[in-house]
Design goal:
Layout lengths: L6 H8 L5 E4 L5 E4 L5 H4 L6 E5 L23 E6 L9 H18 L33 H6 L24
Parallel strand pairs: 1-4
Antiparallel strand pairs: 1-2, 3-4
């Protein structure tokens, strides 16, 4: 009794249809919920080609999806200029495409599913060659440099090594 909802009705409302997502050169995202051929997508801009994001890898070559092939639901595709065809992808190229995809997906997401606009994700980078007397990022402290002193190893939080300390436990 009372207010009840059917679990089938809720499941039907929550179920989403997998779509093929295509990100155009201008950053626009288009989703196709029906089977669509690549040739249909290329009608908007015939100077480009469609590339499957799943087959892109660092230092790999960019390849085009055939015009007669259908876009697969659940996959992400990029529309790229023909000048990039058979071009070797560097990490910077993939990063730029990832940023473009992320931006397009954020714009297309419903308001309830968006991540806070002010939130940012920054990579944590450590200098591989950091030795003694360096801060966590690898730079020498200005006070130590000016005074010509050797950096003090006992300072808390500075020069700390982030290597894991592992030990063996005999059985």
């Amino acid at each position: 009794m009372g207010i009840c909802t059917s679990c089938e009705a809720v499941a039907a409302a929550v179920t989403t249809v997998a779509t093929a997502k295509v990100i155009f050169t201008d950053g626009e995202l288009r989703e196709y919920d029906r089977s669509v051929r690549v040739s249909h997508v290329l009608q908007k801009d015939p100077t480009c080609f469609v590339c499957d994001a799943d087959v892109m890898e660092i230092d790999g070559f960019v390849s085009a999806v055939g015009g007669g092939e259908e876009l697969r639901p659940g996959n992400l595709y990029f529309l790229l200029p023909r000048t990039m065809l058979k071009h070797r992808l560097h990490a910077e190229d993939l990063a730029a495409l990832a940023v473009r995809a992320s931006s397009a997906l954020m714009k297309a997401a419903p308001a309830g599913e968006r991540i806070r606009r002010g939130a940012t994700v920054s990579p944590l980078v450590f200098n591989v060659g950091s030795g003694e007397g360096t801060a966590a990022g690898g730079e020498v402290r200005a006070a130590d440099e000016e005074e010509g002193k050797k950096p003090n190893k006992k300072r808390r939080g500075i020069g700390r090594k982030f290597a894991a300390e592992l030990s063996a436990i005999p059985e």
